[in-house]
Amino acid sequence: MDSTNLNLPDASYDRALIFFLLHEQPSQYREQTLSELFRVVKPGGKIVVVDYDLPRWWHPLRYIWRPLLAKLEPFALDLWRDEIAKWLPRGGIRVRKEPFFGGLYQKVVITR
User: Fold this and answer.
1) Virtual CA dihedral for 68, 51, 83, 103, nearest 10 degrees?
2) Which residues of 15-35 are buried (b: 16+ CB within 10 A; e: fewer)?
3) For the ranges 5-14, 23-32, 43-52, 84-93, which has the lowest average pLDDT?
4) How far apart, in whole angstroms, are the C-alpha atoms of residue 13 and residue 72?
5) 86 Cβ neighbours under 8 A, 6+ residues apart
6) Among 3, 56, 71, 73, which residue has the least CB neighbours within 10 Å?
């Protein structure tokens, strides 16, 4: 199914998961995907996003990871520059971010 145009009824799910999808999408599609999830998740429901993140300055893979992502996953570096919250609809939401493995990855829980 196209994540930017879900063929699902409004407010029909308690939870939604996006697992390593946003780094595959250009910015405008990323925003549309998140808007669609907000549309299909019930008020008070949660959207969980797992994807790449900016590693901490001390992480030994940080300087190897950047050129690798630039070559193989060109949109992934957007997630290094901006928080996922940048692409979320505005108003009335709660965002909780948790980094993993020294910041290589992130889990973001969005409460609608």
Assistant:
1) -70
2) ebebeeebbebeeebbbbbbe
3) 84-93
4) 33
5) none
6) 71
Instruction: Report the C-alpha gap between 100 and 15 in whole angstroms.
Output: 21
Name residue 27's amino acid. Answer: S
Which pair of tokens denotes residue 33? 């995907």
Strand order in the sheet with 41-52: 13-19, 41-52, 105-111, 94-100
> Locate tokens 């996006």: which residue?
18
Ramachandran region, residue 58 (left: φ > 0; alpha: ψ -120 to 50; beta: rest): alpha
At 42-82, the pLDDT tens digits run 999 999 999 999 999 999 999 999 999 999 998 999 999 99
Do residues 111 and 94 make contact, with C-beta atoms less than 8 angstroms apart? yes
Helices (H), the chain: 27-40, 62-72, 78-81
